[in-house]
Amino acid sequence: MKLPEDRTLCAIGLDWKKQVRRIPLPLRTEWTPTKKKNLVTKMKTTVDLSEPSTFQEAVNGPDQVHWRKAIHAELKSMRLRGVFRAAKLPNGQRAIGTKWVFKIKRKADGSIEKYKARHVAKGFKQKYGIDYTETFSPVVKYVTLRMVIAIPKYFGWPLDQLDVVTAFLYGIMKEQVFCIVPEGVELEGNFDCLELVKAIYGLKQASRVWNETFDEFVCSIGFQVSAFDPCLYIKVVDGHCVLVLVYVDDVLITGSSPELIARMKTDLKTRFEMTDSGKRQCDDVPAALCG
């Protein structure tokens, strides 16, 4: 259903402030510790003692079956994305170190939901001008996030959320970077390292090249980048407006046309492997998207 002319968001990129003033934004809540000395005790711990710290601990420990599956899934994902290619380290070049990072994802009740393994680069050993140049990647403004959550509430629009699976592995490398062979992988032939074709987690430029990849695709299907926030994309078709907001690998989509939203989701899933969280309530957006 088309919106009345005075309520359309077609001009959101042209008249941003007026549109924002008309929409009541969610209140921002803050948490303040009652006593400074209690700050440490009130912080939630993020360390799980059952998570292995090394590859050998993972594949030889009590949960080795689960960790081996997680490692296999990570390597399979990298192979499907074409992240590496076997190489011979050129003279004068050096290979960046890598490591395995293991994480147990738990449900709200504390039970185990998923075992996750990530093969990451030791980006702190990269040298500027050799292994990387630009690293900046835009992050959505908090006011933009609040506005995109408030808009569907105000107009009665649907709000969908998607998550890009292993998002950083889609970013195409511009620099020539080599890394050591991951533990658990053996190369055939006269090769002694891997050349990175795509970015991996831990690289200084990983977030930037992923953002460039996502930006290029979204703009190629008719969206325009907002002049006020590079993480907000806008598309207007026959008086209907669709908004796409990206925060690293999380995507929010809302708009006045369910058909256009469905088309956008199909386009994204065609290009990227995604997890579809479906319709979300305006007050049910994960904290990861709220800063």
UniProtKB/TrEMBL annotation:
InterPro entries: DNA/RNA_pol_sf, RVT_2
Domain of life where this protein originates: Eukaryota
Domain Reverse transcriptase Ty1/copia-type: 83-278
Classification via Pfam families: RVT_2
Listed name of the protein: Reverse transcriptase Ty1/copia-type domain-containing protein
Organism per entry: Phytophthora cactorum
Organism taxonomic ancestry: Eukaryota, Sar, Stramenopiles, Oomycota, Peronosporomycetes
